[in-house]
Amino acid sequence: MLFTVEVADPHSYARCGRMVLPHGVVETPIFMPVGTLGGVKAILHSNLRQDTQARIVLGNTYHLFLRPGLHTIREAGGLHAFSTWQGPMLTDSGGFQVFSLAGRRKLTEAGVSFQSHIDGSTYLFTPERVVDIERIIGADIIMPLDECPPGDAPYGYAKESMQLTLGWLERAQRQMRYTQPLYGYSQALFPIVQGAAYPDLRLRCAESMMRYDAPGYAIGGLAVGEPTEIMYSIVEGLHPVLPYHRPRYLMGVGTPANLLECIARGVDMFDCVMPTRNGRNGMLFTWKGVVNIKNRKWRNCFIPIDFSSTSRPDRQYTLAYLRHLFVSGEALAGQIASLHNVAFYLQLMAEARRQIRMGTFSSWKDSVLPTITQRL
């Protein structure tokens, strides 16, 4: 992959970049819709590309390993061919999903053994095995196996977890050197900076990873219970250490406000289930604030959901009609709302890029945050 920083904001660490990947070009900062099992929930690929302007999506190694399984993915020719999504794709390692299996996992230096949430069957993920799985999936950007400690992890545990992640990274890097991509294009492995809420561990972890001269770097283990201010502080503290001309990916974050604040602190890439999950539950993110569409106040509101949206259903249907679909239990409600939220997130990124290029990102961010975070 090739990444170029094109414009830097004069008043923050925000920057616009251009990432060239085997399946296309991605302008940063960017939000990646989450397609855990090879599809973004309730959104067709055609809608995803045309209505939201999505250019890169995320898949999950843990879930895809369990369903549909590696044999099916490989026989199909990789996840791009299987899912028919032909744009860039990133897969995470499943480390966070394993972290969430408290009581059904066991960590050792060898790797992590866990019980499937589907049928209780036991598997072992090693750093080498995860690389092999992601070779079969075939994403443009892949993640090494890591451990994601909780936000309130004690210092000793966080330190041991970080050291475990670094040891697993070394083995993943070696496996990358000794294996070849299966589908005729290279894959980029992003090390994941861990260290919980401790700045010294985060810095030590990041500095240890610099020897790999990786094509990009991820920041993991945030938005897992720690206060938002700590997340911002950790991200900002990593700016001087992470290479300037490499993309920075903040994993699993977050709200529109989180995205803007972390762009200001030098982050280029984001993913989160929030747009689709909250959409399916009737929460809409808009430029005017956060809408609970199930609220009775929208019952006779016959204006378009969002006339400024890139999503065609937003301009076609009214707030009253969308509320009617939700209170009636219609599946179409979640589809429209999910599409709206993903479109809003991508519009937010596009506007952030525009403001960075104009040199007005910082003042724009400060002016827009009170509006988009208010409850309507």
UniProtKB/TrEMBL annotation:
GO MF terms held by the record: tRNA-guanosine(34) queuine transglycosylase activity
The Swiss-Prot or TrEMBL record describes its family as follows: Belongs to the queuine tRNA-ribosyltransferase family.
The positions flagged as active site in the entry are 92 (proton acceptor), 271 (nucleophile)
Name the species this protein comes from: Candidatus [Bacteroides] periocalifornicus
Recorded GO CC terms:
cytosol
InterPro entries linked to this entry: ArchSynthase1/Queuine_TRR, TGT, TGT-like_sf, tRNA_ribo_trans-like
Instruction: Indicate the secretion signal residues.
Output: none
Q: Which domain of life is it from?
A: Bacteria
- Record's subunit section: Homodimer. Within each dimer, one monomer is responsible for RNA recognition and catalysis, while the other monomer binds to the replacement base PreQ1.
The EC class name is transferase
Region annotation (RNA binding) ranges:
252-258, 276-280
List the keywords (alphabetical): Glycosyltransferase, Queuosine biosynthesis, Transferase, tRNA processing
Q: Which residues form the tRNA-guanine(15) transglycosylase-like domain?
A: 14-369
Q: What does this protein do?
A: Catalyzes the base-exchange of a guanine (G) residue with the queuine precursor 7-aminomethyl-7-deazaguanine (PreQ1) at position 34 (anticodon wobble position) in tRNAs with GU(N) anticodons (tRNA-Asp, -Asn, -His and -Tyr). Catalysis occurs through a double-displacement mechanism. The nucleophile active site attacks the C1' of nucleotide 34 to detach the guanine base from the RNA, forming a covalent enzyme-RNA intermediate. The proton acceptor active site deprotonates the incoming PreQ1, allowing a nucleophilic attack on the C1' of the ribose to form the product.
Q: What is its EC number?
A: 2.4.2.29
One Pfam family in the UniProt entry: TGT
- Name of this chain's protein: Queuine tRNA-ribosyltransferase
The keyword Repeat is annotated on this UniProt entry: no
Query: Which residues are involved in binding substrate?
Result: 92-96, 146, 194, 221
